[in-house]
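seq:
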Amino acid sequence: MQVDITKTKIVCISLKNATQKRNNFKNLAERLNFKNWSFYDGVETGDHVEGCALSQINVLNDNLNDEPILIMEDDVCESQYYKHFISLTSDADAMYLGYSNWAADPYRAKMSMLDCAASATKKGDLYQIKNVTSAHAILYISKKYKEACATEAKKYLYDANGNRHCDVVYAKLQNNFYVYATPQPYFYQNCPRNKMWTETPIELP
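struct:
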């Protein structure tokens, strides 16, 4: 199956008062000719982790069908590798168009409470991924995967003994689904904390 990103439903999670980030994303959407995109006003709580997770959960629950949806965060920027077409395998539950190499190191993976380091297995022109973090540009495809991400993110959010970050929950779920990534990131997080982990090609074991 071939997906044209410019025609795909895209939802960008952004706080309502994040004026600069919203302007940056609007410029990106115009630059890349996105035709079907919108903002989701992020849930505002006193806890950034909670607000991020609840926003992701709400968008997923609002789109529980087999139509592909690209959920993005408002600090994304397209990389030099960006293409608007993606060829998907028939078994794909999701495709990471952006990802982090944070958990490629076993020590860093342990810091995020992952059982083992991230890994990627070449499948044609793509990589099937396990334990890969970051949720700034994920193309969700199957209904069962959307449901699993929403359900598990909510469960882990209120688990005092777990990692509450939704991207870590999604990383764990990759072990039970067919989740793929492009060899190079189409999008990275343009912020000081995450840019170095998200703008480089996926690291192989």
